Amino acid sequence: MKKKLFSIPLIIAVILSLAAVSCGAATTSPGTEPGSGNAGVVNVYNWGEYIDDSIFADFTKETGIKVNYTTFASNEEMYSKLKLGGSSYDVIIPSDYMIARLIDEGMLEKLDFSNIPNYSLIDAKYKNLAYDPTDEYSVAYMTGTVGIIYNTKTITDNIDSWSALFDPKYTGQILMFDNPRDAFGIALTYLGFDPNTTNTDEINQAFELLRQQKPLLQAYVMDQIFDKLESGEAAIGPYYAGDYLTMRENNPDLKFVLPKEGSNWFVDAMCVPKGAANKKNAELFINFMSSTDAALKNMDVTGYVSASAEAAKQYGATLSPEDYAIMFPDDETRARLFVYANLPAEILTLYDQLWVQLKS
Known about the structure:
There is one protein chain. The strands form three sheets. Strands 4, 7, 8, 9, 10 and 11 form a six-stranded mixed sheet that branches. Strands 2-1-3 form a three-stranded parallel sheet. The radius of gyration is 20 Å and the shape is globular. Helices cover about 40% and strands about 15% of the residues. The chain has helices at about 10-25, 55-65, 75-85, 95-105, 180-190, 200-215, 225-230, 240-250, 280-290, 290-300, 310-315, 320-325, 330-335, 345-360, and strands at about 40-45, 65-70, 90, 140-150, 175, 215-220, 235-240, 255, 265-270, 305, 335-340. The protein has 14 helices and eleven strands. By secondary structure, it is of the alpha/beta class.
């Protein structure tokens, strides 16, 4: 959580660093499977603000494999890109419910764990989860929660409920997730419904609530929330706990709360898309990312909790009691959290239709 956005000098430094390292390695065109795993490239597709970019040079130095890195803002954006021909990616890092969907639709490769010995470092509580019960397609990367982030100078009320995002007195200051699963999940939870409901009447009630909320909003956002909340341009919005720690470094007036009605607890995991050209390189990258050193670097920059047991333990020891409670919820808090499940195709279609209607 030491940085948020790449500065221009940093981008140039990283490019030069990678170029210098790759000059000493065997050169391989993108999309070529080197076989030995000691040369070539790996094409990684990840969330924005979700990695320490300096580890790319570390990985290249260790393996001779260059990292081509691009980002997405939501699971739905990533899914659409894959459906439109995303086999050019070798590693993707979706969330739990999206991993289940990708498995169901035959869009992931089974992993060769002989190339991922650091899988043994992953905490057992992140193995055999419902989205990948046999642990054949994924290796857990980071975990976290969704809550409300708000500016305590602008909003002096003690926020503890999703109701704040639907309150007219904050009109023009409210931000909302720019993806259907999170937006509908918040609305359903606030209404007292199961966020994984397949009841169309409940989903339509959530849509009506979101429709009423729309005139109150300043914007629908994903990564744009950083600039808007840090600068004070907006005052309140839902986002991820790890990003809150990063954002607070630039604006100490921000506060994070898990709403009393409940919220999402997620696990993001590393997977290999079907047809990936550099599968072995992908597995070597997953193995590297699962190491304690890489996990610690990633946690330090992103603020999220790694699935690596030892790294998470070391990271937790560096946090204040307040931040520890946010990043490592106790049992009482965990009882209010839920995990998104993969939904039937007809419900996903309904979500898409309602989302287009809402945004139009």
